[in-house]
Design a protein that fits this description.
CATH architecture of the largest domain: 3-Layer(aba) Sandwich
Number of domains: 2
Number of helices: 12
Radius of gyration: 19 Å
CATH topology of the largest domain: Rossmann fold
Helix content: 40-55%
Low-confidence stretches: none
Bound molecules: phosphoric acid mono(formamide)ester
Number of strands: 9
CATH superfamily of the largest domain: Aspartate/ornithine carbamoyltransferase
Distance between the termini: 14 Å
């Protein structure tokens, strides 16, 4: 089994067959992670650098753990405390690290397109761990894997993506992936946080009424309000946002069915998601985090096959 691509830059570039291979491989690695000995020798002698130019908790730890479970040699780089603060360019930083014989690069960067730029200039395989407001492909893959595990499949599944669609790389990767796999998608949130023409451009429906979106869906993926990416005021207050678009127990209790609740993290509790939902039996948020390790093991393992 192999992928059609040398890099994982985004879901947009993947074939449906690539996604199927990654999800199947992740299922096998999830079994490995249930064993007493959770380590396999698959990436012995492969060296991977994790380049994080932007903050991360889940993605960075998840990649590091996936690499260790695969027996890869890993180097961790964070922009703070590095020579980036002295003005070194992205390409110089990466070329200096690669001269130490690195095979793969996992990179998070605040600039959309940064991993695509690197892929044009360096020989190593690149995995995008989130680039600006563009894509977060391994989050899309782990979300799809988690939906599959929680509901039995993706074909025909009704997924509502709720909140800050405008600034969300998670939303874009989820939309590309779920559409390729035959799911139906509705986005819901305030009009100021939903891009114009998204229906025509990406083949999703828009529902501005949160209760209607929740009544329609099987799965609700609730997104973080990304205040750090908003350079203008797009809603009146966090309190008002919570009243209109916060997913809360009372709203779910009005539904005549059970739905699965997801969130990529970190959660703004009491803003887009209330604690009595985030910590409830409806929520698979911590399963998403657990599944992230198996999915990232699958991605690294399959891409390493292309680098040899
Ligand atoms: N979901 C996600 O990307 O979380 P982090 O920013 O903590 O990596």
């Amino acid at each position: 089994m192999s992928l059609s691509t040398k890099h994982l830059l985004g879901i947009k570039d993947l074939l449906r067959e690539d996604i199927e291979v990654i999800l199947q491989t992740a299922t096998q690695f999830k079994d490995v992670l249930q064993r007493p000995v959770k380590k396999v020798p698959s990436l012995r002698d492969v060296t991977i650098v994790n380049l994080f130019f932007e903050n991360s908790t889940r993605t960075r730890i998840s990649f590091e753990l996936a690499e260790k479970r695969l027996s890869a040699d890993t180097i961790n780089f964070t922009a703070s405390g590095s020579s980036v603060s002295k003005g070194e360019t992205l390409l110089d930083t990466v070329n200096n690290i690669l001269s130490m014989k690195v095979d793969m690069v996992v990179m998070r960067h605040s600039a959309s397109g940064a991993p695509h730029f690197l892929a044009r200039h360096i020989p190593a395989a690149i995995v995008n761990a989130g680039d600006g407001i563009n894509e977060h492909p391994t989050q899309g893959l782990l979300d799809a894997f988690s939906i599959q595990q929680a509901t039995g499949g993706l074909q025909g599944r009704r997924v509502a993506i709720i909140g800050d669609i405008m600034h969300s790389r998670v939303a874009l990767s989820n939309i590309y992936l779920l559409r390729k796999m035959g799911a139906e998608i509705t986005v819901s949130g305030p009009p100021t946080l939903i891009p114009k023409y998204i229906e025509e451009a990406l083949g999703v429906k828009v529902e501005y009424n949160l209760k209607k979106a929740l009544a329609w869906c099987d799965v609700a993926n609730v997104l973080r309000i990304q205040l750090e990416r908003q350079n203008q005021v797009l809603f009146s207050s966090l309190r008002e946002y919570n009243l209109s678009y916060g997913v809360k127990r009372s709203v779910l209790d009005e539904l005549k069915k059970e739905i699965v609740i997801m969130h990529p993290g970190p959660i703004n509790r009491g803003v887009e998601l209330d604690s009595d939902v985030a910590d409830s039996g409806h929520s698979i948020i911590l399963n998403q985090v657990e599944n992230g390790v198996a999915v990232r093991m699958a991605v690294l393992y399959l891409l390493a096959g292309r680098t040899q």
